[in-house]
Amino acid sequence: MSGAAASVSKVVSLATSILTVRLTFRYLGPERYGIFITITSIVMMLGFADLGISNGLVNLVADAIGREDRHAAREAVAGAFRMLGAIALVLGVMAAAAYPFLHTGALFNIHTPSAIHEAGPALAVFFGCFLLQLPLGAVRGTQGGMQQGYLNSLWTSLGTLLSLGAVLLAIEMRAGLAMLVLSISGPPVLAGILNGVELFGFSHRDLAPDLRDSRPGVMRYLLHTGAMFFLQQLGYCVGMQTDNVVIAQIMGAASVAAYAVPARLFNMVLGFLVMISVAMWPAYTDAKARNEGKWIRRSFLRVFVGGTAATVLITAVLILFGNRILRVWIGPQMQASMSLLLVLGAQCVVYAYLQPINFLLNAVGRFRVQVICQLAMAALNLALSILFVKRYGIVGGALGTVVSLVVVQVVPLTIVTWRELKSYGQPAALAGAPKTLAVPDWTS
Fold it and tell me: Domain locations in the chain?
């Protein structure tokens, strides 16, 4: 159900994204649209600011549900909500203190006075919505751990549709960049708040976060597990989001659009596989708590083989017909070279190969090897992106990502995963193991 709902949500998101990109690109023009994409990349690089707590909550809740311990699940939710709220407050104070000293012209490499004037408020609005989303990570983590991610997907779809309506209204009113950013990022926040009210106020009131239930042992484990997710997210965000920033700094904000829009095509394809893989995450953790290793092995292989094969097929279609799609989607002014389409396609396939592996290793608690590989990839990708963008132009951004992924992630993570799955294929592999493997019992 979570996989199906997430796929439907992705279709809604894709359809809305197609319309939103077309409308905003024509309305803002290349430079201001490049500012918007760069703002999104900068703030998304702060996606690790929750310290991985919401992802750690998925494991804690899934393990508690697998052990049929609702009290432990409630303690985990309370601890996560308290910590995420504190992080949002600290970041908000720091941002308010730093904002008067921000030089948007240098940050975005823009020179038009009107663009410089709009960039600061737009960044502030987007960052404010980002801060409001942080405590809502406890809602997403709880629903994910309970294998009710389909509910979060439905609320996400509602936020996406509200966002489209708000964008149409903002364009009709000839609103500025800041108001357009608010129209895109504000409605998803509202939908997330309503999701939390429904979850903790009606359907699962016994899990509602009570700060008195946030025990030190729970928060210590959330910090420990969250630190692993934090480092993974740090590496992932640097690897995925710095390409736009590097291109903006070296080639200017207008060049970001020529890279980001074709990349959006391939990211749409990858998004479907991610939705299926992330839905399996809490199921793997639950199964490991119940010592059901064979089920983990069988389910992973289905998702891994089927998802990767489908991605290869769809990516080939996008490479062949990418410019025709861009012409219909954006207009004749947006065309991508065949070299850019080929490299973006290769990047999409490599990510499709790695996504099921990453979510399986997250679920079974194999964090350390992922952290090492992810940070190594981030450092190598940043260096290669700078070198390749200077030498090959915008193609270099994706080329640096592909090379770094293959070198430091594909080989080691494949070896670790197949060793893990091989142990699950043995009938007695988990027979002598403790009941709770992915998450230790913090109540003891």
Answer: 2-424
